[in-house]
Amino acid sequence: MALEPFHINVEPRVLDDLQTRLQRARWTLGEEAGWERGTSRTYLRELASYWRAGYDWRHHEGRLNALPQFKAGVDGTDVHFVHVKGHGSRPLPLLLLHGWPDSFYRYHKVIPALSDPASAGGEPNDSFDVVVPSLPGFVFTGPPPPSPAGQPTRQSAQLLWRLMTDVLGYSRFAVAGGDGGSVLAQILAVDHPEAVIGIHLTDLGWHVYNVEPSSLPKAEQKYLDTARKQFMADGAYALVQRTRPRSLAAGLNDSPVGLASWIVDRFHSWSDSGDLESRFGKDDLLTNIMLYWVTQTIGSSIFTYYAESRSPSLTAADHVDRPVGLALFPKDIGGIPPRRFAERTLNVQGWTEMPRGGHFAALEEPELFTRDVVTFFRGLRTTGGDLNQEKSDAFAAL
């Protein structure tokens, strides 16, 4: 498999075009500071003004390029990934999986402490070889070929398994993920239990909500009813992406302000504060948005919603038998479920109810997230076999 180093270098003409579009943005009529009907127009104008006159993409591009990045050809897809080798005697390979509408950037704050825990005051023997891919269809990874089975999420999981085993040479590894990354982690554990020593999740995945409430105990019925009411109040984004992704993508791919509005609305809704910038700074928000803008992948990133609604990769009848650790943040989508509800589909061996935080846990609460990942996998290191495998000849030569 072809493997080569990757360096982000956005062409000047792309940045010049962005400036022109921001300067010529057409604003909706009126002014509204609140978020009740979607993204605050007041905040959006403030963000766009900073994007045009204060945000420095080249600075953030340089920071991203400080992370060792690669591309590997896997089954017809050029998979982009960050690979930071761990310090210590036996780093544990760890695959970190993002979701939508974030990117591999979700994990940039936790990579140093996971790969070199001693530098953050931790134990050297808790280190990881950290692998953070751009999921198929997202930013620097190309869209995968059409899935013969009509299940692109399962196909993506297979690509990631081959990346870890065939390209990087890890026969066994750990996985952590949230949102779409949670579903991918579960598929990997179901399809490749011989390779996955355990998975760490920040949510249960969308498939668990497709269950008949009348079959559940009262506490679980109440949780499911609350989650569904929340979705009806705040789930329009998913209904559009499930049914008309192409219509939506045309506007988002053409307008940077439109793209920012759609993505920032999710960050606001799913974070643990009404004040968005108490959780994320403008630079974090814009760097994530820029990754979509410069790669023009907003359309391919939302296609999974459409495909999964027609042919789910997992159902509520699937069960993960590998050890599962759950770090549950109170302002995540749906809130914190009853443990018994989670145990219907997962072999729960770790359960942490966090004091604060929301959907983008590693970006919003990096210390809480890192501590829980380290603690959960510490108990699996001694039972996972020889996890520090030799890298493939292709990777070792880089």
Would you mind describing this structure in some detail?
The chain has 398 residues and is of the alpha/beta class. It has one domain (18-24, 34-396): Alpha/Beta hydrolase fold, catalytic domain (Rossmann fold, 3-Layer(aba) Sandwich). It has 16 helices and nine strands. The protein has helices spanning 12-23, 41-53, 57-65, 111-115, 152-167, 180-191, 218-234, 236-243, 245-254, 256-269, 282-295, 298-310, 339-343, 361-364, 366-381, 393-396, and strands at 3-5, 69-74, 77-84, 92-97, 128-133, 173-177, 196-201, 320-328, 346-353. It has a nine-stranded mixed sheet, with helices on both faces. Strand 6 (173-177), helix 6 and strand 7 (196-201) form a beta-alpha-beta unit. Helix 9 packs antiparallel against helix 12 (298-310). The chain is globular and about 60 Å long. The two termini are 14 Å apart.
Could you give a quick summary of the protein structure above?
The protein is an alpha/beta fold and 398 residues long. The protein has helices spanning 12-23, 41-53, 57-65, 111-115, 152-167, 180-191, 218-234, 236-243, 245-254, 256-269, 282-295, 298-310, 339-343, 361-364, 366-381, 393-396; strands at residues 3-5, 69-74, 77-84, 92-97, 128-133, 173-177, 196-201, 320-328, 346-353. It has one domain (18-24, 34-396): Rossmann fold.
